[in-house]
């Protein structure tokens, strides 16, 4: 099994003929191709499954385009879908606000703690909650708060993925959930955000370390840190060396993947 990282929380998991894409988002940097696909378009047609952790642009912008190109099923939180005029419509990836406008031919919904099987891959929904996001432009700043009528963090869910005798956990963008995650036990891989120190929209390094100690994975891959955001090259900084060293002290393996780097497990 090969895992490739494309930045933010975009991962491609390849095992045999299966190619599972997590979070088909867009680059969030104004000066480097605003919202261009994080995963190269040359990879789109070969995708076999698409998993979406929530509806923010850096996680979701190209979901319908890749689904159309590949024919892959889309798996997302049940809150990402509404039935309107007898059609099941997905939250519009590029729509403003909570507009359900996009029809996907091959669509599966999942709830927190629910399990479904799609083409031989077993997927369980994990409880996650996106934190507030502070956006600063010069002297002006605005904090976007997740909520029942807010687009930020909409549909937040994590995934426990079981395929080809491996277990991979991806938590998306989330704050810590100590009690709910105690049921997750020793996955082969834990993909975990660590960039919430300055802007607490996700866990920071210390919280992510606490989660690694609770879950006890075999391998940890930190993500969603030192990412570009709007006009900033590094909107959510984290000390990956500190995190790496502290994870190793727990007796757990850790790998730092740069953009477009892969690891085989």
UniProtKB/TrEMBL annotation:
<dbReference type="InterPro" id="IPR001279">
    <property type="entry name" value="Metallo-B-lactamas"/>
</dbReference>
<feature type="domain" description="Metallo-beta-lactamase">
    <location>
        <begin position="7"/>
        <end position="224"/>
    </location>
</feature>
<dbReference type="InterPro" id="IPR050114">
    <property type="entry name" value="UPF0173_UPF0282_UlaG_hydrolase"/>
</dbReference>
<dbReference type="Pfam" id="PF13483">
    <property type="entry name" value="Lactamase_B_3"/>
</dbReference>
<protein>
    <submittedName>
        <fullName>L-ascorbate metabolism protein UlaG, beta-lactamase superfamily</fullName>
    </submittedName>
</protein>
<dbReference type="InterPro" id="IPR036866">
    <property type="entry name" value="RibonucZ/Hydroxyglut_hydro"/>
</dbReference>
């Amino acid at each position: 099994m090969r895992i490739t990282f494309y930045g933010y929380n975009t991962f491609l998991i390849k095992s045999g003929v299966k190619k599972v894409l997590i979070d088909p988002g867009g680059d969030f940097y104004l000066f480097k191709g605003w919202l261009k696909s994080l995963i190269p378009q040359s990879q789109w047609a070969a995708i076999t499954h698409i998993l979406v952790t929530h509806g923010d642009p850096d996680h979701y912008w190209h979901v319908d385009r890749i689904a159309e190109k590949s024919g892959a099923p889309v798996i997302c939180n049940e809150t990402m879908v509404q039935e309107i005029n007898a059609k099941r419509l997905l939250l519009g990836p590029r729509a403003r606000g909570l507009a359900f406008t996009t029809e996907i031919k091959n669509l599966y919904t999942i709830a927190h703690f629910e399990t479904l099987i799609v083409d031989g891959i077993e997927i369980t929904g994990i409880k996650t909650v996106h934190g507030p996001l502070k956006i600063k432009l010069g002297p002006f700043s605005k904090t976007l708060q997740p909520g029942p009528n807010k687009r930020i963090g909409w549909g937040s869910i994590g995934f426990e993925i079981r395929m080809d005798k491996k277990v991979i956990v991806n938590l998306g963008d989330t704050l810590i959930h100590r009690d709910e995650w105690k049921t997750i036990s020793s996955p082969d891989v834990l993909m975990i955000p660590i960039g919430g120190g300055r802007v607490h929209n996700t866990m920071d390094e210390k919280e992510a370390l606490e989660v690694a100690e609770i879950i006890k994975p075999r391998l940890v891959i930190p993500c969603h840190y030192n990412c570009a955001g709007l006009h900033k090259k590094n909107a959510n900084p984290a000390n990956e060396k500190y995190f790496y060293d502290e994870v190793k002290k727990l007796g757990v393996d850790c790998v730092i993947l740069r953009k477009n780097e892969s690891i085989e497990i």
